[in-house]
Predict the 3D structure of the following.
Amino acid sequence: MSGIFGYIGSQNAVPIIVEGLKRLEYRGHDSVGIGVLSNGELIVRKKIGRYKLLEEEFQKNPVEGTLGIGHTRWASHGKPTIENAHPQVAADVALVHNGIIENYQDLRRKLAAQGRTFTSETDTEVLAHLVDSHIGEGLQNAMFDTIKEVEGTFSLCVISGRDVDKLVAVRKENPLVIGLGEGEFYVASDVTAFPEEIKNIVFLEDGEIAVISKEAIKFFTFEQEEIQKSVEPRVWTPMMAEKGGYRFFLLKELYEQPRAVRQTVGRLISPDSEKIDFEDLGSLEEKLSSIQKIVIAGSGTSNHTALISKLILQELCDLPVEVVYGSEYRYQQFIEGRGTLFIAISQSGETSDVLISAKKARLAEATTIGVTNSSSNSLVRETDGALITHAGPEISVPATKSFTAMCSIMYCFGIYLGGIRGTLRPEEVLAGINEVRSIPGKIEEILNQEDDLEYLSRQFFDQENFLILGRGPNYPTALESAMKMKEITYIHAEGLPAGEVKYGPITLIQNDIPVVVFASQEKLYDNILLDIDEIGARDARLIVIEKKGRNPLGRKIDHLIEIPKTIDLLTPILSVVPMQLFTYHLALKRRCEIDHPKNIAKSVTV
């Protein structure tokens, strides 16, 4: 999550943009940058770190201009360096960008063949070069031509020294809002960035372009049809604006899961789609090819990710894997050393127990890898290598998209490790890549069932106990689903291995107790059907999550939830999504605090 700000008017743009970036800093502060047109000349200054450094730079070396753009970056494509900071520039075109350009590699190769050179690792620089390649038609037409070639999600602000009276803003799936002033206009990622005096705003919708001059603003569709937009009073609070129209961050982030998985996985697949490439692990390949054991540490949802990862790595890499709680492992006397790969999982990269465990493993000379959602946190600094998901910041305390993104990247890591260790044949690597690439679309299919899951929640919102059962990779899914239910509904929910129910918990199964059973994998499927029979015979209210087209007919099932087919190791990613939606609607009906449940924090740093 990064922040965009733009200004065109009669005032000096620099202090206005700096102040806007200050208000947007919560969106990321790996780096900041400003581009200003001063007497027709494009001047760009960028800094690594917070907006204050840029403010000090302009105080020492003032620049004046009435048209400019700025960006505060949360690094998701390329490391936080000056070269990767925005604005990205091609000739005298400057551009700031939020989002992901999915076909940037193809575009980069095309532009390079035309003789263009690139100085950054970002997909954004490709956009700047595309605009510059069309700029002879003017900035407005250059943007129309550019977006025809681009695939992905983006919000953009663009200026050019060859069209000095225009600021162009573009939106596709990333928010942009325009503030209307007296003879001046503002553009930002959300309304919180605007000065107090801005009372009227216009929200860009997906597939829209705003062409702004000092005198007027025109709106177009991507098909170049001019449209009229309604002006709204500025009544949104900062939190409401950032939610993008969703009632809660949890729901917004739940619906961001297809994009989060797509962005995470897409960056790892080679251009020919025949291998997984973790560039940051290149120096570790020799060590990884000879490891003898894996230990994975995590806490909370990250521990459930670790349990799923254990099954992935055991099957794909033919290695013994142990899963530990960070809160326990940090106190162990014996810490595995040479020959061991220690994987530390933490969405924030700041979880204290996991960090300390990783430090101890590294001191014992284990090879250490961090799995996290940011390239600039303590876990990345404390480990030998990192697997970075690209889910974007997760604001709601209960984890949703970070879980599915971390499961996705661990599956990709299993393919990668199996490839370099020789436990997977090339055709098996390719089959795994094709399957994981299909997951975002399948998540979208499940999200389309929200109305059905909301209806189901009406029948269970008054319950105070749930049992949630799974086998194999869906036992951790049961644990994660039970945790979500406890976190946001305050219902007592127990996640259990389905095969263990008969050893005691079966005494709890009686009339009307709700029991969720994950039956979405192939292995142990006959055993799961026996579990369903056993539970159904005791008159529980049975909810079964099953693959499409495989309805276990003739069994006592009260509610069937269908998910798309996939391989067993990827079923947790799909199986958890209907439970997230179901739990969200339970919490709504129970009037619970959804984004900030009592007593828990997003990141446990103490």
Remarks:
- The chain has a mean pLDDT of 89.
- The domain at 251-437 is CATH 3.40.50.10490 (Rossmann fold).
- The chain has three domains: 3-242, 251-437, 447-589.
- DSSP finds 20 helices and 25 strands in the chain.
